[in-house]
Amino acid sequence: MENNLTPLSLNDTFKFSCSKKVSCFNECCRDLNQFLFPYDILRMKNRLGLSSNLFLERYTSQHTGPETGLPIITFKTDPFRELKCPFVARSGCSIYEDRPSSCRTYPLVRMASRSRETGTIAEQYFLLKEPHCLGFKNGHIWTVREWIEDQKIFVYNQMNDLMMEIISLKNRLIPGSLDIKSRLMFHMACYDLDNFRSHIFDKKILDDRDIDSGTLGAVKNDDVELLKLGFQWIKDTLFGEI
Questions:
Q1: Cα(216)–Cα(61) distance, rounded to whole angstroms?
Q2: Does residue 115 form part of some domain?
Q3: 29, 76, 97, 111: which is deepest, by most CB within 10 A?
Q4: pTM for this one?
């Protein structure tokens, strides 16, 4: 893939369009091995009106990252359907408004790093040109900045950067695999949000923490705030004493 990547600044332009009029429509939705961020899962499970546990069971598989030792969630694909995304139909993506960040960003690829000294995020975008994609031939001309705005990528980047901060801390402070308790805790707080909420309010797992009533009130009904709290809980629990 590296040979097909062209670095772009926010003001650089590229030509691209994707629609039913392009003969390769839906080709990028098969032969998948697609990593899903926690915010991706939050958006999709809410779109479908499913609990996080049911969504994960029905549509995803879990693996352990060979480099991070952390749980990784991918789409569960059917080898008898060309490993297609479970949400692709002949008419296109059936959850388009809440599609994952990697789908939303394509044909761009975003790489981000956080400064240890300042905590600021440095990002770089690349244009990915794959042989099967014909959307570059007669496409609309975009700047990278315009594409980010048009595809509503910014909020995904914000939430995904919080996850990447945890991965960076894990790699730096706890190299290798986590113990089973830590893996289960990480999976629950990042991916199985409805179960995490139940543990907060029914099993009182945060009662020993200094969490203000306003935050607790927000996470009762707001999954985004719940995920942010989950990220912070993971950081405090796994890395707080290191």
A1: 30
A2: no
A3: 29
A4: 0.93
